[in-house]
Each structure stands twice: as C-alpha cells, then as structure tokens.
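Summary for the steering committee. One of the milestones for this cycle was to obtain a three-dimensional model of the protein with zinc ion bound, which we needed before selecting residues for the alanine scan. The sequence and ligand used are listed below.
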Amino acid sequence: MGIKLLRDVQKSDLEIACSVCNKPALKLTLIRGGLIVHGENFAYAVHLPKSKKLLIQARNGDYLPLEEAIKTARREGLEGYCNTCKKFYCNEHAPVNKEFEEGWGYDYSFMTCPLGHTKIIDD
Ligand SMILES: [Zn+2]
Ligand SMILES: [Zn+2]
C-alpha cells in the first residue's frame, strides 16, 4: 500500500466520544495520504484524499463526509457511527455482532445502536 506513518500511531489525532457515556468510541490518526481508524473491534489504515479536511470536519461534529469517504474507500462505513442517529456510540452502547455462515466461516459484522438501528461495519 505504501502508506508511511508520519508519527507514532499510539497518539491519535482525534478521539470521538460515545454520545451516551462519553467513553472513546473511535480514534483517528492522520497518515500520509490517509487515515488510521481505530475502532474497538476493527482497526485499519485507509487511503483517503483530503483526509485532514475530513478529520477537521469530524472534530467539528460533522461526521457525514468522513463516513461517506470511508464507505467509498472500503464499502462499509465507520464502526460506532449510527447513520440514522448521526451519533457515535462505544462498543457497550452499540454492541457488535459477528455473523457466521455455516460451512463458510466469518460472514459480516453489524452494530446495533441503543435505539435499535443496525449497520454493517465489516463484510
Ligand atoms: Zn458508551
Ligand atoms: Zn441509531
């Protein structure tokens, strides 16, 4: 992929808090040409044009551009983010379930927000 880390990935550039309990729901770290997304269940690096702008928008509470960009890059959107509530939730408040298909193994993962909205976050 050729992604070069600009700095220690332990230090995240943005922590988005759970809208219920204020615990960290998702951490984002800027890297050259993209972002590292650290969720409680999944962590990955993603190539993303204009990642700094997306991070600034997310810091201001405008999560939709980031969600859309992540979805375009890897098909599934952000872990912890409910598209219906337009809010972030931690793993406790939006638990993730992994689905397995008989004979095939792991199929996909989905989260369920406190209001019952579901969203596939990995497939
Ligand atoms: Zn929470
Ligand atoms: Zn919801």
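Key point for the committee: Strands lie at 14-17, 24-31, 34-38, 43-47, 81-82, 87-88, 96-101, 105-112, 118-122.
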